[in-house]
Fold:
Amino acid sequence: MRILVLLHGWYGERIARNVAMRAPEWSVKTARLPTKLPAVVEDVEEEARKVLGQVDVTPDLVLFLSEEAAAAQLLPFIAERLKVGAVIAPVDDYRWLPRGLERQLSTELGELGVYAVFPRPFCTLAGGRHEAVRRFSSKFGAPRVRVVVSGGVIREVEVLRGAPCGSTHYMAGRLRGAPVEDAPRLAGLYTQLYPCLASHARDPLTGEEMIHLSGLMAKRAVEEAITEAKRS
Structure:
């Protein structure tokens, strides 16, 4: 699968590196988005062409990892010119993609025939209706792990699906030797200490901070894994 990552800086770079490292059979290319765009971009085509000039592949999937809300105005033009079928635009900071802007993007991309998902945060992704999104989410998204428990202690942790930023693998490496009763709490803590890329910005609709949700996803993954281990 060919993946194009549209990014601004460290946030996107870190995710792109992790995806490329853990899915070496995929092609992962990056292109930088312009920074400090005005709230209303007058010439979308001109700014979008700066991005398209960096692209030398026809991607199956675009990861839109913008750190500035204004850059979202470029995405429909870029997606149309690249003839991409699917876009994942995660929201790890509410300020980067407010819900009103998400709805606008969803409508515009839908009119172009582009399937788009907006996981809040990225590590809540758990599937989709487009083949490229399903393939991506088979490896990256909502954490899923398998654990080996012996003597009330976590002996082994296998990552079945990891958070796109790499925090699940970080957590798994530190959870070995933890008491079973402490493991879920520690999973959430280690995820946030990675450090988690989700922000402390609160989503007005849910009232939750993105970083709290990411820790909760890791905690639940370990709870479910422990329950499954006790059954076997």
User: Anything to note?
Assistant: The chain has a mean pLDDT of 96. Helices lie at 10-22, 44-52, 75-82, 99-111, 131-139, 167-175, 183-193, 210-231.
